[in-house]
Amino acid sequence: MNIKSISFNDIESKTKNIYEAVVVISQRARQVLRDRLVERAMRENTEEELGVLDELPINDNYEILEKPSSVAVQEFLDGQLSWSNTKEIEMDN
């Protein structure tokens, strides 16, 4: 797997604050990971009662997926993410 560098200028072109971009990307990465865990739990435990996600059985037959952080960064750079800064909204009112 090749590591591809990302220009700060690309990230700054989407938002005024680099820290805001990092928060948005990290939140999206968490959502991607959570969605994958829930999907996997639903697929594997259709007949069993769903418990804690940390107790999912380990299965050696897994598919190789792109890392959630890579998915989030790519979605951010492609302009597929939308967010709002609640502090700016409160200041405007």
Explain what this protein looks like in three dimensions.
The structure is a single chain. By secondary structure, this protein is mainly alpha-helical. Helices cover 53% and strands 0% of the residues. The protein has one domain (8-46, 63-92). The protein contains 4 helices and no strands. The longest helix is centred in the middle third of the chain and has 27 residues, at 18-44. The termini are far apart.
List the helices and strands and how they pair.
Blueprint: H1 8-12, H2 18-44, H3 68-77, H4 86-92
Summary keywords:
53% helix; 93 residues; mainly alpha; 4 helices; flat; 0% strand
Instruction: Specify the helix fraction band.
Output: 40-55%
**Biggest sheet descriptor:** none
Q: Which structural class best describes the helix and strand composition?
A: mainly alpha
Low-confidence stretches: none
